[in-house]
Amino acid sequence: MQIKTVTTTPFDDQNPGTSGLRKKVALFARPHYAENFIQAVFNAVGPMQGKLLVLGGDGRYYNREIIQLVLKMAVAQNVGKILLGQSGILSTPATSHIIRKYQAYGGFILSASHNCGGVDGDFGIKYNMDNGGPAPEKVTQAIFTESKKLTAYHIAVMDDVNIDRQGRSQCGETIIEVIDSVRDYADMMEDLFDFAVLRRFCAQGFAAGVKNGAAAKANGAGKGEAAGGFRFCFDAMNAVTGPYAHEIFEHRLGLPKGTVIRGTPLPDFGKIHPDPNRIYAADLCRAVMAPDGPDFGAASDGDGDRNLIIGKGMFVAPSDSLAILAANATLVKAYKTGLRGIARSMPTGMAADRVAARLGLPLFETPTGWKFFGNLLDSGAVTFCGEESFGTGSSHVREKDGIWAVLMWLNIMAATGKTVKQLVEEHWALYGRNYYTRYDYEGVESNAADKIMADLRAGLAAYEGQEMDGWEIVKADDFAYHDPVDKSVSRHQGIRFLLAKAGDNAKGEKGQKSGREAVKGDKDANYAARFVFRLSGTGTQGATLRLYLEYYEADYDRQNRDVQEVLAPLARLADKISGLQARLQRNRPSMIV
Ligand code: G16
User: Fold this and answer.
1) Matching CATH topology for 3-181 and 433-592?
2) What is the pLDDT of residues 276-303, one digit of tens each?
3) Which CATH architecture fits 184-431?
4) How many helices (H) does the chain have, and how many strands (E)?
5) Predicted TM-score of the model (pTM)
C-alpha cells in the first residue's frame, strides 16, 4: 500500500466549538481543509497503529466523500480496524454505543448536527474518545494546536471502498468492516427497556391493559384516539434517525407503518432545517394538537442526539423533560434501582434541581456541551444528563440520545397510563413550574456580540444588590466550571443574573417556601428568576447570542399561563441591562425557542 505524504499549510480556524468543527460545506471543500483537520486529530490523539476506530455520519451532503477520506487517512496511520456504518450512516448515539461495545480507541462522527445540510449548508467533523463521548476540552485544544502547526498529512493511495455493502476488506494493514448501522443500537434499547410492555402499550394505548388506564381516560386521555391503539408520530426530519426509528418503533414495537415520517436520510434533509423544535417541526406539533391527531409526537435532529417531545395539549420543554424523566426513572427497567445523580448544563432550566433535592441526589451544573458530562458519567456520579437545547441522555452512552428519550416517555406513559399532559401538569403541581424560554440572536456581528459580553462581564459586581423593575439582582456572575473529577476549570461559560422579587429576602426564600416541594438551602434553584447571556459555539455564520430566561412559579393556579407573556418582563430587564437589541441593531430575536 502506497502512502503519500502531502505538504500543506495550516488553517487558523480549526478550533472545534461546542461540538466538533462545523463550517460551511464550501469551506470544508477547500483544498487540504478537511485533510488538515483529520490529520490534526490523528496527531493529537494518536498513534493509532493497530487500534480500532469507529466511523459514521448523519448522511448529509459531503458525508460520503469525507468517509472515503477518513478511511484513506486512517489506513495511512496503520489503524488496525475500522467499523464503518453501512453507507456511511451512524447516528451520534449509535456511534457512542459502538465505540463502547467494541472497546474502540475512538471514532469520527461526520455531522453538523441540527445545522442545515446540502451543498450550501454545513458540514462537521467530531472526534469521540474511547468512553464513547465527545473529546474533552483538553483534547480539542490539542487538536487546535496541532492544526496550527501542520506541515503535512498522510493518505493511502487506494481505490474508494464500497461502503454500501456489509462485509470486510483489507487495505494495507487495516481491516475495514462495513456494519449494520442500526442493529447494535436497537439491541441496546431492548436491553434498557422492557419491549414486551412497550409493545402491549403501543397495541392497546391508554384504553386497556395499563395501570391507571381508567384514571387516564377519565382525565381526557386518549381523546381522538383510534380504538385500541396508541397513535404516535415520529418525525425523523429526513435525517439520520429514520432507519433507527423504522426498526425500533415500527418493526420491534409493532407500531403501524407510517408512524415514522420523513424517515429516509437525505443529503440536504429535503431542504428543511433538521432541528427538532416547535419552529422547524411545526407540522408535527400542529398534527398532535389537532383533536383527531396522534396522541404523542416526537422528533429528532440531523445526527439523532436531540429530541422533541409533544403530547396532545402539551409541548414538553427540554428542561422539564429532564426533570420528569428523572422523577419517573424507576419505572424503567434499566433504572429500577434509582439514579446516582443528575447533571444539567448551566443555562438549562432548573426543574431537575428540585427533583434531585427531593430524591436526595447530587445535582451538577456544567457548561454547555455534552463533553462536560463525560467525567461525571464515567466516574458514576450521575446517571441522567440534559440540556435546554433538546438534549437528554443517560449513562448508557456518552452522548445525548433522541430515540432513548422518546422510549423513556413511552415507557413512563405505559407504566402510569397517563398522558404527556397529565404527567407534566402533575409534575408542576408537585414541584412547581420553571417557566423557561430562549431568545436567539443569530448571525450577528461577532465583534458587537463579544463587546456586549465583555461589557456585561466588566459590570457584574455593580449589579449585585441593585433593584430594577421590581426585581432584586441577588447574584450576577460569569459562570466557571470546576470539574470535580479531573479538576480542570472552564471559565467564561455564560453570564448569569439570579433574581429575587424585590421585597422578598435576599435569597428569594419567599418563593422557595411557597413551593410544595421546596428546596432547602442556598441553591441557585431557589431564586425566583434568572437570565443568562451566552455566545453559541455551534453557529457557522457570524455570532449567535443566546439569552436564556427562567421564572419559577410554585402556585398551582398560575402554572398554565403563556410562557412568553410570563417571561417578557425578564426579557425587557435583560435588554435594559445589556442594551442588546440596540447594540445588535435588532428589534426582536431571530428565533424564540
Ligand atoms: C451541541 C452540543 C450541545 C449544546 C448544543 C448547543 O448540540 O452537543 O451540548 O447544548 O450544541 O450549543 P451552543 O449553545 O453552543 O450552540 P448538537 O445537537 O448541535 O451537537
Assistant:
1) no
2) 998 999 999 999 999 889 999 999 999 9
3) 3-Layer(aba) Sandwich (3.40)
4) 19, 27
5) 0.91
How far, in whole angstroms, is CA 312 from its chain's centroid?
23
Whether residue 538 has its Cβ less than 6 Å from ligand 1: yes
The SS3 assignment for 200 reads helix
**What is d(CA 151, CA 410) in angstroms, rounded to the nearest whole number?**
52
Tell me: the pLDDT tens digits for 434-456?
999 999 999 999 999 999 999 99
Q: Stretch 176-191: mean pLDDT, rounded?
A: 98
Cα of 96 vs centre of ligand 1, distance in Å, is 16
Ligand 1 atom closest to the Cα of residue 20 is: 20
- Indicate if ligand 1 lies below 6 Å from the C-beta of 443: no
Confidence check: pLDDT of 353 > 70: yes
Distance from the alpha carbon of residue 61 to the mean position of ligand 1, in angstroms = 20
Mean pLDDT, residues 122-138 = 95
- Peptide bond preceding 47 in cis form (omega within 30 of 0): yes
Measured from the Cβ of residue 549, the count of other Cβ atoms closer than 10 Å reads 26
Task: Exactly one of 96, 111, 113, 578 is catalytic; name it.
Answer: 113
Q: Is the pLDDT of residue 229 over 90?
A: no
Residue ranges of alpha helices (H) inside 369-445 are 374-378, 402-416, 420-431
**pLDDT digit string (tens) for 76-93?**
999 999 999 999 999 999
Nearest residue CA, atom 18 of ligand 1? 113
Give yes or no for a contact between 171 and 85, defined as CB atoms under 8 angstroms apart.
no
Any atom of ligand 1 within 6 Å of the Cβ of 536: yes
Torsion, Cα 283 286 287 291, to 10 degrees, reads -170
- Annotation marks residue 590 as catalytic: no
* Mean pLDDT taken over the chain: 92
Pairing of strands 489-490, 495-501: unpaired
CATH number of 433-592: 3.30.310.50
**What residue spans define the domains of the chain?**
3-181, 184-431, 433-592
CATH of 3-181, one of 3.30.565.40, 1.20.1250.20, 3.40.120.10, 1.20.1420.30: 3.40.120.10
Q: Is the CB of 277 under 6 A from ligand 1?
A: no
